[in-house]
Amino acid sequence: MTVKGKVTDAVSNETMPGVTVTIKGTTTAVPTDANGAYSINAGSTAVLIFSFIGYDTKQIAIAGRPNIDIKLQPSPSQLKDVVVTALGITKEDRAIGYSVTTVHGASITEARENSFVNSLEGRVAGVNVSGVASGPNGATNVIIRGISSMTGNNQPLYVLNGVPLVNNNYQQTGNDGYGGKDGGDGIGDINPDDIDNISILKGAAATALYGYRGANGVVIITTKKGKSGDGLGVEINSNFVSENVIDETNFQNTYGQGYNQAPPVSGPDALGSMESNWGGLLNGKEAYQFDGIKRPYSAVATGNLSRFYRSGGDLTNTVSFSKGLGDDGATRFSVSDLNDQSYVPNAGLQRLTFNQTTNLKFGKNLTLDLSAQYVTEYTKNAPNLSDAVGNLNWGPMFVPRNINITTLAGPNGNGTVAGNSGDELNPFSDPYTTNPYFAAYELQGAIHRNRFTGSANAKYTFDSGYFIGFQVADDYTNDRNTNIEPPGTGYLVDEGVDGDMTEQNVKQTELNLDLTFGKHYKFGKDFTMTTLLGGNYRKSVQEYFTAGGNNFAIPNLYNVGNLENPYVSLQTNNEEYQSVYASLDFSYKSLLYFTVTGRNDWYSTLSPGTINYLYPSFSSSFVFSELLHIENMDLGKLRLSYADVGGAADAPYQTLQTYGISGTYSPGNGGTYPIGTAGNGTVPNSGLKPSKRKEFEVGTEMDFFKSRLKFDVAVYQKQVIDDIIPVTIDYTSGYNSALLNVGTLRYNGVEVEIGGTPFKTDNFRWDIDLNGTYAKGKVISLGGQPNINLGSEAQDWGSTAYLQDIVGKEPLQIIAEDPARDSKGNIIIDPGLGAPDPSVAQPKTFGSGENPWGGGINNSFKYKHFTLSFLIDGKFGGHIFSNTNIIAYQDGLSKLTLPGRNLLYGTDQQSAQAYYGDWAFADQGQFVYSDSFIKFRQLIIGYDFPTNAFKGKIHGLRLSFVCHNVFTILKYTPNIDPEESYTASILSQGLEAPAVPYSRTLGLNLNIKL
Amino acid sequence: MIAAGSCKKDLAKANINPDQITAGQVNPNLLLTTVQLAYTGAPTEGGSVWVTKWGGVAGFIQHVASTNTGFYYGDKYLNNIGAMGQTFQDNYTSAVQPAVELYQLTANKPQYRNLHQMARIMKAMIFQQLTDLYGDIPYFQAGLGYYERIYTPVYDQQQVIYTDLLKEVSQATDSLTENGDKPTGDILYSQAGDQIAEWKMFGNSLLLRMAMRLTKVDAPTAQKYVTQVTGKTMQSNDDNAIIQHVLSANALTSNQDAAQIFSQDSTDVRLSSTIVSNMKKNNDPRLPVVAWIAYGLQDPTDPSTFPQFTDTNAADQIGLPPGYVIGGLNPAINLLIVAKDSLPAEGLAGYSRISDNLLSISAPSLILTYAETELLLADAAQRWGIGGDAATHYKNGVLAAITQLSAYGSAATISPGDAQTYLSAHPYVPASGLSQINMQYWLCSLMDEYEAWANWRRTSSIANPAGYPALTPTNYPGNVTSGTIPRRLPYPPSQKVTNLANYNAAVAGLTGGDKMTSRMYWDKEKGQ
Questions:
Q1: Chain A neighbors of B304, CB-CB under 8 A
Q2: Fewest beta carbons less than 10 Å away: which of A10, A630, B371, B450?
Q3: Distances in whole angstroms, Cα of residue B176 to Cα of each of A568, A695, B170, B368
Q4: Helix H segments across A430-510?
Q5: What is the pTM of this model?
Q6: Complex confidence, ipTM
């Protein structure tokens, strides 16, 4: 008889092409077609076997039925069977001697973020993800297994379909406390809907084949491929989320604006006290405000954040087409449109992504894989962060308690004065604090990005088993960054500058050529060996072409041709690397595996005398479950690996002193003089050599009860030696830093991943995934120096907090002023001041900005067509210095400043404002908080519509409700989110400064498969 | 393999910055321009020129006063460590570093013989300003992060520094030669008729300024150098060292006084009553040039519409008395209460400001002048009877100090006749000569605040503790000098971070600690 039917995925309800349907006990088999349908001739009592890689095999007795539809259950353990490793080489899971975590695309698609990397937070052991609080298109800080470079780039290498990506976050808020913008990074451009899976290589042995580039870990992204077989598949994914600010402030509401316990007595008085909340009791009587208008002196500032920030919305639509080309391969094309109206007023992000992959087979020997992605992206008005200049986040946070922030919008609603002069309505005594509405609506910023990423990979396998492969990969990005500060901008008026602007063109290219050659050998029936030899040539160019200047000659015409004082600058960063590498894989039965690799790199960025470095790796896997047959254990293996890899300098041209010209001096009395510069503030080093990372790892992986319970444990020690760091030196040397090969850093870590299905019936299933991380670092040596300085904070805020790496301690120590103490440790109160004397305070260490502990639990419940999943994650043991809190304290906003407002202090009879000011300056440790937190990170409730309702026209329809940053379960930081950060740079991890407040997203995701 | 064909030479070549100049290609003249501009202040917004010079020193010396204690601590001697240390923190990287580069790039190169002497003189001038503010400072090891890999320079004693400064300027000035190069990067004198001759006068005038700092502590050395330079110093206002500022894309070319504080809209800093009263009482022709009353925004919320009202009439000018605030719980320091009778009709807005003649982005900096030089020669002549006739030098100094304002433009130009009238009304009286001379020095160094403060300290001695001019200190509650005018600036707190051991050693050598009241070498309390 003929049996027909359709095979679908039991989880996604997606139809499954290519499933093998075999008649049990025979070799007769047919594949399902592109729609998952099969048709097979078999006896009416025969048994059919349905098998597909990554799914539990199912056996069904025909029992005379002509139609049998089957759902196949994905098998997590089966899915792990094949793992993508370095250079895209897939290996059997059991053969791998180091830790690799695979994340599937589905888990980051539904409750998405503009940058998919943020969705990895809390999901993978050993991977510390934190986004920058910067609005629509911020960068993400990803640290794998702790810091690998004390001051340099710590971001992993991202590889998209074999193409190493440029992930440059060149525009970041400075580490000096003087503010700036986050211009995003390179990895944020990837469309999550295109991602099939992500493979995270954490340790040095896993990444050794990437050489110097893999030193921070490698994230390999594989996009979806066309379905094999024939036919066309269409998939539509729509996602809409709203985004709203989370107000963490809890300020006092007893006293209002003014000085010395009195409300402002006039408009000018109010104008001069907009950053002073040391006024009178909020009694509801009329008092002057900055605009000269009297309003009730009442507590109205609570809610200013939600008044100023708007309700944002983010709509993403992706359509993909997939077509099989029969035996010749398959192709997939997708288009995605993202339109994000940020909750930051007048800011947003638009992104259009085209992605295609084509896999071609020419006969049995030659394959050609083509992959291309084009992204065009517009980021509007990424806000200034950290310092008050141009920082729209400052006003809503810090205006006095009787000020409704909307009054700052002014008569035109955009923070300008009445009329159409366009001048800033500046309510602050200091023009360097910008009206937030002016910052949002009048300061203009745009980043236009066009990016093409493409690769072609040809592989020819000879009949003898030898293969030769060649890949060319290029990532080309062009950014046009425009920033305009119109002539009415308060701080420019103050400087006598009639507006300014910059246009920056940034071109980044990365070309990689790889040639590989190898063969698979089999010795007898038990031994195999695979050899691989390869060479890589990499050329990276970054060009920053900037034209800018000040004073617009014709009003309201904002282009560089209209600048009275223009300038141009060009910076070109050229880097060139040449490498050869080899690997040997051995296996004995399916019991013992080991891999040896070696790579030699030649670097352009280091001293000509010592530009190459050879490094080895070794890894092995022992599948002990093959020897010891433990009941209910499906897999048990031990892993062991060691690698020694090298790192290059982060940037070129650091070996020689260079000179330049910075503008021209033309005084008008004759003579034109170019203005010279010497060096760039860092002492160059002509003897730079590579840094080294040595890592030893052991681990085990076990599966029980047919994958109902599995766990994976990894223990490692990582050591960074000769780290290239710009050591902070005293500025009286003429320089702020010197580049030295001096750092030694050690991390000990443990990573645990546990997965299980505690409960499972035909209709109900409960899956739980748990991961835990411990990674504690210690600075071993800094070349004889006791410490080095990292980022610092602006001193004019009253804070002198900064970060140091200190020998013998964890990295990123937060240093702040501690008051003078007597021999018993009690704070010495200065009799004149009635408070500790800030001038005799001493810097003290208050703990590390790095969280050594982290983890997450994801629960997923499925009942018939409903699914509910939620993620709870946390980080523990780190610290954060909060500038928001020290400013709130000095401005009299903090509840801590409530007691004793009407008293005079010390023999100098100083005011409460001065008294609390002394405490703020002298005792800055009070603003260092534990950074530990637990968050209810994500909630997804989904419904899969039964596909039979659509008469075969729709193969899958899923609607889900999604929520990200649901609520915070535990935190210790008053008034701010514990994850608040203003830069992705390692140099400020643990220092907080006013940035965009955190947000919650709430929305719907619709997935349709046609 | 591709890499097998690699060539170290290609990789090394890839690491040469294609957009910059290498040491082998650079013309050091470029750096002389930088060094000269940088002497007038580090171009940082809200930087040292604001917070140290105007927030502090100009208030110490009672050129200005303010009721805003947050930014202007100078007239009240309040503790503002970060602000007081800012010049120390800025100038080593903004001025010392290019000066050392210029010095090194030109050393032992015959083609840069004169340029090298100019480098020595400018470098000495930069260091003198720093040591006069802070006392013992890193000197011999400073700025050598690149050339000597000295990352945490030790502090040198001011006495040793001064010995070397005098030696450097003396040798460099003597080594300038008409038969050498004519440096093109020189913005002071390359447009002058005889650049080298002008530099010799400039060098000798600077040497005089340095030598006269030692009045109290080492008179023989001071006298030796005064004698050495007599007749070789500046001869007229045409020889003045003036840096003409302009607005350009490089902030270094702007007048930092204006760029960093006032521009057109300062609302917080006023001329002090000490200087305005003096000028008013003496019918000083400079008053309507340096002062104006300006208030009112045409649009009350828009600073660019300032001022609505201006008044440069000398008779209307009122200086702000130092040491007061507006409001507060303490009636003794509340300006509105204390100065009730003398309060201008417009209140705080009615006090005189520094006029926009002196305070604009394109106003020049007069870094060393004929007037100052003549007044110092008069001081030496009066004190020790060397270097000529005190009365003549006084006369030259007073006339030049008034007429030198023409550097600020035609609106600021005062006729020789008006200057002569002022001089005739204030003839030189040897009995009160030192007082007269140094009063004039204080008047003519308005805008050159560090110099004004140093000269006042130099002239205050056991015999004359109030200094010349005799300034009455304020005693604002919470001041940290026990109501005395500060004698030095504390080191910046950042020194504790980046140079702790050397900082501690320097502080250990300071009698009285790292305070404003501690005395530096040339300002010995027991000096004569």
A1: 421, 423, 488, 493
A2: A630
A3: 37, 62, 10, 19
A4: 436-441, 490-495
A5: 0.81
A6: 0.94
